């Protein structure tokens, strides 16, 4: 009897110990919360699910080395809302779009309980930094200096709806010269028959309705190149203020033509990248600016952008170039980080902001002309937990590991290219790893 009792006690004890170990392991997991740009959101979801515990088995990429100590949540609320959340250390701004998923059984709703990082395609503005350093800003809550680091680059596609098969359709391969795509967005070309013979259909422009870094980067490109492409377009083609938190479309209010009445345009709004894909797919002969991962050939089956082609655009040398990861990489691969503001520190937000200007009109015959980088906005110190800051050190070291692209891409490079994005160049990756390595210290940019 005593022997049986001992065996039973031992068995029960082992079971109880195992249960306690499971509970302790679960409780030790760090949940990391962020929000922001929809442009890279599908890439981020795949990266986070590769590095940490996936939100679900269906989102887990194959062949990943997982750090079970972390689980990352990311809500695609738009760049502007993401930067506002970052500046004030809050998660109350913006309404998420899906895909990608942003909740699971453990965290069931947005706003999240914490804000640990944010994503934006637009750089931190002077207003963002003023808010960050202000009385009620994040810095007053113990975050230290702000960090802004690029993660990937992607093409901003001009995706279009060919029109119904019962009518004359736009070609599956559509070449647009610089003058043509400038004139479309300036309202100087309003019917496809001004470009394509026998397609007499009005053009519908599909734009973002939310505060969007994709909008900012797209209009920055147009504002830079279009005045030279058409003398009717002024140098203030689009006004500088490209943020929009009101929910109303920022377009076409930005148009300013020389001696020309602002035209009457067909404009449809969409919330987030998926909203733009829906807007294009539901409006025959529509065209819109959008992340490559939300349209053909990268969009998932069953999503609104799956069948949408993208135009080949003339680049700075006049070469018609299709949007692709290689064409995006060719635009960024030679960028080297420098001390742009002369403060003796390489790696502060101003230094990385120079990349946006570098990409506004990429050089080279193989570069796609409209390329955007996307940034992670990080805190030098996350007040609620040092482990959150450490999670980004490990994550960035994995996601931005040294690799040779395109001949020997890393796992994370391949995840990005499968969604239409491209990795950073070798030198820039090393700079980002160094900058993020300063989290939870007072070195480099975190000493400012």
UniProtKB/TrEMBL annotation:
Pfam families reported for this sequence: PBP_like_2 (PF12849)
Transmembrane segments: none
Domain PBP: 25-305
Keywords of the record: Signal
Gene3D superfamilies per UniProt: Periplasmic binding protein-like II (3.40.190.10)
Signal peptide limits: 1-28
Entry-linked PANTHER family: PHOSPHATE-BINDING PROTEIN PSTS (PTHR42996)
The family this protein is said to belong to: Belongs to the PstS family.
Name of this protein: Phosphate ABC transporter periplasmic phosphate-binding protein
Native species: Gloeobacter kilaueensis (strain ATCC BAA-2537 / CCAP 1431/1 / ULC 316 / JS1)
Lineage: Bacteria, Bacillati, Cyanobacteriota, Cyanophyceae, Gloeobacterales
